[in-house]
Amino acid sequence: MQSRSSVGWTKALALGLAVGVCASMASAAGTSASQPIGGTGVSQPAAAGTFREIKWDDLVPKDWDPLKEFKNINFSLMNDSDPRANEMLKRMRETWDNAPTNNDMDGASVRIPGYLVPLEDSKAGLKEFLLVPYFGACIHTPPPPANQIIYVKAEKPAKGFHSMDTVWVSGTLKTLRSDSYMGASGYRMDAVRVEPYVEPK
Predict the structure, then answer these.
(1) 166 alpha carbon, distance to own chain's centre
(2) What is the phi/psi pair of residue 88, to 5°?
(3) Which of its termini does the chain have fewer beta carbons within 10 Å around, N or C?
């Protein structure tokens, strides 16, 4: 995760709050905080014994509003040297690092697309990584809310993948908080399969 310095954060914070998620602009990859990979909305049920394909929206409790405590703040009146901007950034980070998870997803067998952020890499492949919904999350921008980050432990090391590669990950999802140097995650997945992302037909 990049340094949490206030340089440029007032504009980033205002942008992030405007779209309802952490500061991120649409990337060359065509995804952003408001347009995650796999699209938005709620997923459909899956056949018994298969992995249910889910969307990132499924991970957020329906009644959670990440902007609730920031709605009456006019960020355009602040600059980066304003102590209020630093305080707002700190409050935003605390709110998003402690973002609630959707308890209905605990123990679910799911398949979800995302961008890969390596945590433990070796010649054998990736054993641990974060899965995030849009390009650059945790690398070029502040991390998303914790309920939009999945900490993945692969059953077998995933070979041939690099940072920010797009993948499908299948496995059992748990509502279990983890902290890493790249960001706080609200979910953990024991992945049985990690494969290159292919757009659904």
Answers:
(1) 13
(2) -65, -40
(3) C
Strand-strand pairing, 166-174 and 178-180: unpaired
Beta carbons of 171 and 110 less than 8 angstroms apart: yes
Tokens of 126: 């990736």
For residue range 46-83, list pLDDT tens digits in order.
555 689 999 999 999 999 887 777 777 776 777 777 78
Lookup: tokens for 157: 């090391």
Q: Would you call 152 helix, strand, or coil by DSSP?
A: strand
CB 103 within 8 A of CB 62: no
Quote the pTM value: 0.76
Burial of 94 (0-12, 13-18, 19+ CB in 10 A): exposed
DSSP code at position 197: -
Given a contact cutoff of 8 angstroms between Cβ atoms, the answer to whether 14 and 75 are in contact is yes
Yes or no: say if 102 and 58 are a contact pair by the CB < 8 Å rule: yes
* Tokens at 18, concatenated: 């405007």
The Cα–Cα gap between 45 and 52 comes to 6
Structure-token pair, residue 97: 């690092």
The token pair that represents 168 in the structure block: 């499908």
